């Protein structure tokens, strides 16, 4: 974990590197801060090792906030004058990346607060919506050629953001790893209409899923034994009953049976799928199930169409739940194929390796391309993802054993 103040300083550090590069005569705030707040960028000089971030008491929270205020002020002044420069486009693209980077860290901050403080942190939790529909079974999706990835023009028009004055051309941005859009061939397949629930997962646990090597990849079985996995992260047993801990305290898993399971690794998701006689979807299958439009061979930005996400369509950070919502709470967010909660609630594991798409061109050194090995792709965003940050083509990635992020899944099957 990183201490919360580290995220606050690191996201400002990112902007300080912009100032260092483009603001003439810019004076570095502090060499020590540069060292502490660099995450992994070799190109920006030496940095503190990640596991040691939490061992430093300096810079303090107050010093970090002062640093942040300083950088914000410098950036505001810098941006005001940027339009007159010849390299304005280049700079604005990096500034936009800085904002997206900051939204990524906002989400990581939620994970870290949950891990470090969990129910000691007094989160401003909004009331959860109720399930208004029962969502069961699998959707049939026809195969054929599918255009995977982001292409400009599939963006939401600024018109759809009438209530949000700052949202102009919100969806003109996509990370380099989502591009270019390219054709892939899919066989017909089936995919769950809902994410796998705590209730479903509890059945797997009660059926001895964690004690039976037959369901597990070798790497998964090793983890089960080595780390004594018996349930997802944040599940604990009280008097023989499984409980789930979250920002609101400790709950009986049985009372949360209709909510998407979260904090499971790829290894656990795969084991569940095998036990259930299914498999995880590829990212192309997931994207087709999410974005397939009613007209053949066309694609929409979100499962429900091209409008931006809102409270009625999915559970993203601005909904303020600080947790997953019941399955069936967002019928308005369903896809053409009737899949629900694909955007928000939990990032969904896919079987796809996080690798460059054919024709990939890196747009920023060390941002995405240096992670193209050994990780799996997750799709759709979680309750901790800022609303303006998510797209259906968004490729998140984590190592197969990781559980600290809000990761869940839905299963697929060959038709
Ligand atoms: Fe970062």
What is the gist of this entry?
With 415 residues, the protein is an alpha+beta fold.
Q: Explain this structure to me?
A:
With 415 residues, the chain is α+β, with helices and mostly antiparallel strands. The chain has helices at residues 4-22, 31-37, 61-80, 88-116, 198-206, 218-226, 266-275, 283-291, and strands spanning 138-141, 144-148, 182-186, 189-192, 235-238, 241-246, 249-252, 347-353, 376-379, 396-398, 407-408, 412-414. A 4-stranded mixed sheet has the order 10-9-8-11. The protein has a 3-stranded antiparallel sheet with strand order 1-4-12, with helices on one face. It is globular and about 65 Å long. The chain starts with a helix and ends with a strand. Residues 156-170 have low confidence and may be disordered. The structure holds fe (ii) ion.
Low-confidence stretches: 156-170
Radius of gyration: 22 Å
| Helix-residue proportion | 25-40%
Q: Count of helices?
A: 8
Q: What spatial form do the alpha-carbon principal axes imply?
A: globular
Q: What order do the helices and strands follow?
A: HHHHEEEEHHEEEHHEEEEE
**Bound ligands:** fe (ii) ion
Structural class: alpha+beta
- Tell me about the biggest sheet? 4 strands, mixed
Kindly state the number of beta strands. 12
Give the end-to-end Cα distance, rounded to a whole number of Å. 41 Å
Sheet with most strands: strand arrangement: 10-9-8-11
Q: Output mean pLDDT.
A: 92
